[in-house]
Amino acid sequence: MDKKRILIVEDDADIRFMLAMILGSQGAILEAGDGQEALRMIESSAPDLLITDRTMPVLDGEELVIRLRQQVKWQKLPIIMLSGDFAANTELRRRMLELKVSCLCKPCNNAVLLETVIRLLLSVG
Questions:
Q1: Topology of domain 5-123, CATH
Q2: Residue 45 burial (CB count, 10 A)
Q3: Backbone phi, then psi, for 49, in 5-degree steps?
Q4: What is the pLDDT of residue 58?
Q5: pLDDT level of residue 67 (50, 70, 90 thresholds)
Q6: What are phi and psi of 94, to 5 degrees?
Q7: Which of 28, 49, 27, 23 is nearest to 38 (CA)?
């Protein structure tokens, strides 16, 4: 079986590194520092799973998700959004759930993140 490609989109290099270390056993890790870079990588690398921060420069995670969901070929791409805003901002959480995005609060429990990643990767075969 081919290794699944996991794209981590996070502007904080330390967090990106930590996520890559946690998830490295689950697939081939690709990294982007913002949503604009992620869009370019998605077109060339076709990831099996996207994990994105919400708040980033250039193009934030919310806009990244909206742009992807507007394209037929990315409408079923499993996406996890990490944000410290989900607990207080139920409207944001509602919008992301409507776009079929798994929402995890930052800081994120590593076991919950890993469980979510495994579940979503299994869903794509």
A1: Rossmann fold (3.40.50)
A2: 14
A3: -150, 140
A4: 93
A5: very high
A6: -60, -45
A7: 49
Q: What is the rounded CA–CA span in Å between residue 125 and residue 12?
A: 30
pLDDT in tens, 1-29: 578 999 999 999 999 999 999 999 999 99
Could you tell me the residue ranges of all domains in the chain? Answer: 5-123
Coil vs helix vs strand at 60: coil
Q: pLDDT of 29-62, one tens digit each? A: 999 999 999 999 999 999 999 999 999 999 999 9
Q: How confident is the model at residue 86 (pLDDT cuts 50, 70, 90)?
A: confident
| Helix 13-23 / helix 110-123 crossing angle, nearest 10 deg | 60
Helices (H), 13-89: 13-23, 35-45, 61-69
Longest dimension (CA), the chain: 41
